[in-house]
Amino acid sequence: MSYGQVSPGPTHAPTCFRHPETISYVSCHRCGRPVCPECQVPAPVGVQCIECVRAANKAIPQAKTQYGGTARAGAPVITYGIIGLNALMYLLQWIVPNFTQQIVLVGTLAYWEPWRILTSAFAHSQGSLLHIAMNMYGVYICGTLLEPRLGRLRFIWLYLVSALGGSLGVMLLSDPLSATLGASGALSGLFLALFVVFRTNRSALRQMGIVLALNAIMGFVVPGISWQGHLGGAVVGAVAAAAITLIPKGPKRSTVQFVLLGILSALVIGILSISAFAIRWPYL
Questions:
Q1: Burial of 114 (0-12, 13-18, 19+ CB in 10 A)
Q2: SS (H, E, C) the chain
Q3: More confident residue, 15 or 206
């Protein structure tokens, strides 16, 4: 008796699931799909495909800063960016005719030219390089201490709302015909934020208190220094820092922080708008 031979069905060489034209006999250790050399990622056991590695990385909890921001290794890029922007604006003040006159804060012009409220915080006196040098040195010192602890987003928000607070102090307390410029308001906010962040470090508080007292005295004694901008930036900066640092840890901490910062920002902008509207009437 003879038996016929059964012909096997057609066989196909396995191909990479991302590159179907490439034959591969190596499979991902996680999902089992064939992967070509281009898509292989070495693992402790075998290899994994790019997609499995990407999915695994997403599942890893991100490291957080002391106050809930995303921890990032390396230099404080926001601090350096602020210093770079101030330096660029200062360069433009020298090379662009009448540029300084277009960006300084003048209370009577704020209603029609509202950009001055913020741009004035990135302009500095052309009469003395010491003005921008001292301010940027202060931003560097405060930024390298605060940015790694707060995180980039919280730090830049603190800086900008403090800058607006400085302009608010000028709008409420200065002569509406005077011109004000400089990062001192924002820097005052950062400095008061240091007090909030290091509130339990008595040695640091003692040293910062001496510097703060000297700056406060200079603001009232030395002519040309806007104590109004210093005061406004310091108050708003301290409130912003409190909104970030005093919220206890928990799943909702970031949400609460940003809601409070949003409320503070809206309040500062609202008062600035009302002030600009009120100041304009006598000069219409």
A1: middle
A2: CCCCCCCCCCCCCCECCCCCCCECCCECCCCCCECCHHHEEECCCCEEEHHHHHHHHHHCCCCECCCCCECCCCCCHHHHHHHHHHHHHHHHHHHCCCHHHHHCEEHHHCCCCCCHHHHHHHCCCCCCHHHHHHHHHHHHHHHHHHHHHHCHHHHHHHHHHHHHHHHHHHHHHCCCCCEECCCHHHHHHHHHHHHHHCCCCHHHHHHHHHHHHHHHHHHHHCCCCCHHHHHHHHHHHHHHHHHHHCCCCCCCHHHHHHHHHHHHHHHHHHHHHHHHHHHHHHHC
A3: 15
pLDDT tens, position by position, 175-214: 999 999 999 899 999 999 988 888 877 766 666 666 566 5
Q: What pLDDT was estimated at residue 16?
A: 85
Options 1.20.1540.10, 1.10.10.60, 3.30.200.20, 1.10.10.10; CATH of 77-283: 1.20.1540.10
Where do the CATH 1.20.1540.10 domains begin and end in the chain?
77-283
Q: What is the rounded average pLDDT for all residues in the chain?
A: 85
Give the pLDDT of residue 43.
Answer: 79
Output the CA–CA distances (angstroms, integers) from residue 135 to 59, 173, 186, 187, 191, in the order listed: 42, 22, 10, 7, 11
Least confident among 71-75, 76-80, 132-136: 71-75
